Amino acid sequence: MQRRSLISAAAAFTAAVALPTWAQTPAALPVLQVWKDPSCGCCQDWVNYLQADGFQVQVFDTGNTAVRKRLGLPEKFGSCHTGLIGGYVIEGHVNAREIRRLLAEKPKAIGLAVPGMPVGSPGMDGPVYGERRDAYDVVLVQSDGTGRVYQHYAGNTGFKRTSTAADGLPMAEAEVRRVDTAAGKISLKHGEIKNLDMPPMTMVFQVSDPALLGKVKEGDKVRFTATQVNGAYTVMSIEPMR
Questions:
Q1: pLDDT band at 21 (very low <50, low <70, confident <90, very high)
Q2: Which of 47, 148, 174, 196 makes the best surface tag, with the fewest CB within 10 Å?
Q3: CA 237 to CA 202: how far, in whole Å?
Q4: How far is C-alpha 218 from the geometric centre of its chain's CA atoms?
Q5: Can you say whether the dihedral through the CA atoms of 3, 6, 11, 14 is positive or negative?
Q6: What string of H, E and C letters represents the secondary structure of 136-184?
Q7: In terms of Cα–Cα distance, which of 231, 230, 223, 228 is closest to 188?
């Protein structure tokens, strides 16, 4: 009996050693604070995903642009929500796995980011997207503002979105849910956006020109065009429907 107990203990020790430190049973996680637009459905889906993974999340429905700037994260890594946990910034649809790894490894860095809003990332992977998954990187944003790939996630599609001009983009219809002139963003409950292969949903977009926000108000029915600019979903043109 004693020999059997020793063998079992040795096997358990070997298995623990084989796992990377961050993958072993973690200590209690600090609270994750999240700043997001109150109308952004994919932001809330990401919060729900983290809560299901064991994170305690404190949500502030106040937008995230000012917080991102205050925390020192460069705009080029920006997304639709900003988090803070254990002194690290978590920008966009970052995977729980990498957040746990970050907290265990404790690198000298500003935090993690998934720039833009790639389909297939947590919170951007609901039934409306079917089986589509775009390739994306979880980026470690270092103290000097540069980034390096912390984890790559392969996609299963070959979509390419390189157009950044409104000309030639198909129109989509939407209802304006919120206009944030200070942040240069607009929340739209929209129909299908064909050039982005995006199904109907509610999402927060950046705008290519802040003047576009002066054309519409909350509750308006609109027609608009959108594309990806530097990884961010961006409204290129917008007009009220008459």
A1: very low
A2: 148
A3: 18
A4: 24
A5: negative
A6: EEEEEEECCCCEEEEEEECCCCCCCCCCCCCCCCCCEEEEEEEEECCCC
A7: 223
pLDDT in tens, 132-146: 888 899 999 999 999
Lay out the sheet containing 57-60: strands in order across.
57-60, 32-36, 81-85, 88-92, 109-114, 136-142, 147-153
Separation CA 234–CA 81 (nearest Å): 15
Could you tell me which residues are beta bridge partners of residue 207? Answer: 235
Query: At residue 4, what are phi and psi to the nearest 5 degrees?
Result: -65, -40
Predicted structure pTM score: 0.67
**pLDDT, mean of residues 8-21:** 45
Q: Which among 180, 125, 192 has a CA at the least distance from the CA of 155?
A: 125
Residue type at 115? Answer: P
CA–chain centroid gap for 180, Å, is: 19
Other beta carbons less than 10 A from residue 180's beta carbon? 16
Q: Which of 138, 76, 136 is nearest to 111 (CA)?
A: 138
Tell me what the mean pLDDT of segment 212-240 comes to: 90
Q: Which residues are bridge partners to 89 per DSSP?
A: 84, 111
